[in-house]
Input
Amino acid sequence: MIRFEKVSKKYRGTSKPALSDVEFDVQRGEFVFLVGASGSGKSSCLRLILREDTASDGRVVVLGRDVRGLSTRKVPYFRRHIGSVFQDFRLLPNKTVFQNVAFSLQVIGSSRAFIQQSVPEALALVGLAGKEKRLPHELSGGEQQRVAIARAIVNRPQILLADEPTGNLDPGTSIDIMQLLARINAGGTTVVMATHEAGFVDQMQRRVIELRGGVVVRDERHGGYGDTSGLPVLTPETVKGAAATAALTAVLELQKQIAHDSGAVEPLPEPIAPPAPQPETVLPAVPVVDDPPPVTEVQTDAGTRVAASEPDTGTRGIPIAPAEIDLGEIDGLGAADRLGLGRRDDDEVGPTA
Ligand code: ADP
Ligand code: MG
Output
């Protein structure tokens, strides 16, 4: 599903490569932690998978295709199969929770009917039902990350990339987010999560690929974080109070969830604390579209707008009418680029083979 073949990445103006001869192969449905100290190359790997950047050497194969060979025109369609979330959430500050999630469907030309059905489903999955009308600043950090996750999965991508998604969250909230990612993975979505948070990695006992100075030093099926000498040492506080209890309970809950996912134990009891929502719905992944219709850009007084050039068909067979999106307001957040809709030049994306 994701294969790195002797991948090296050297950024312009740097002497040391960010990645050197990196090799790994992620199977469909896997949950993989990409770990390593800051600067070890985790984000670089994720950017190569998303084709936000291209390798200096070697091959990156995602969903069966060498991403270098993707034409600029095809990159946005390729990215529809990959959801991504980041440490800083990247929500649109003036849009509601619903609108933030709907946005990723609007840019690909989904119909109003499809959006009205899919967005509430995605919000329910991440435990945000009832908060549709809130603005990002009216949410906690954990809730904001849930919105970002809902936005990343509402189009049912086959792969979910998470770059330090818990980096801005407190431990208890981080565990909630980890649980959510585990649940999304249980629905069949391949998840690759970059993190330097040893605790979750050790708890999850999933595959761990460790980078050190751009080199893979470990690839373990059921790994822990491994070498923690590069992590900052925190003075442990006395573990007391509601937050600590909630975090501990959540860890135990997560362990049970994982054991349950692997079919080892009896059905999962109701969580004690925190009251993490446990919706039943798990969205199936969408099959790859080999040659999707092109996106056209329309120049208007208000700025560049994009529209799917021909009606598409939704994942439930609902015909999708083209939707127009104003790119002006999202340019600053890089969302257009992330969705492959920005106005970048071909050579910035990299050469095509
Ligand atoms: P991580 O996500 O593990 O912290 P990164 O992939 O961000 O690591 O960075 C790996 C190395 O590449 C670091 O030395 C970093 O300084 C360098 N690097 C990352 N992005 C760029 C860039 N756009 N230009 C130059 N150097 C970069
Ligand atoms: Mg990084």
User: Anything to note?
Assistant: The two ends are 20 Å apart (CA to CA). Confidence is low (pLDDT under 50) at residues 235-240, 264-353. The longest strand covers residues 2-9. The CA atoms of residues 111 and 190 lie 26 Å apart.
